[in-house]
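re: that chain from earlier
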Amino acid sequence: MAKPDQIFIRDLQLRCIIGIEEWERKHKQDLCINLVMDTDMRNAGNSDDINDTVNYKTICKAVIKLVEASDYFLLEKMASDIADLILDNQAVHGVQVSIDKPAALRFSRSVAISIYRENSPR
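^ sequence. v structure.
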């Protein structure tokens, strides 16, 4: 199987309520989100038309809206919801969502999770 074409959104810096501790439920925290979207860019490569590819600006705006309005307890749930949101775009065949939470542990630069989800065959 050939490796898919990919679109990357790197180091998206957002703030939201995230965590299980009482103080985390009251204060927004910084997160760093990275996205890798599997797609097929051949049509866009030939046409030079935005309608033939995944509009990463539209996806980025939707992720920002979801995350900044959220109040998740777990990074795992946030990542899953972000993946579902992105996979609503049928041009995205698979997505890797990685989230870093810099203030999660003392003496650690960050704690991070990463998930990979694919669109179900139709």
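The longest strand covers residues 5-18.
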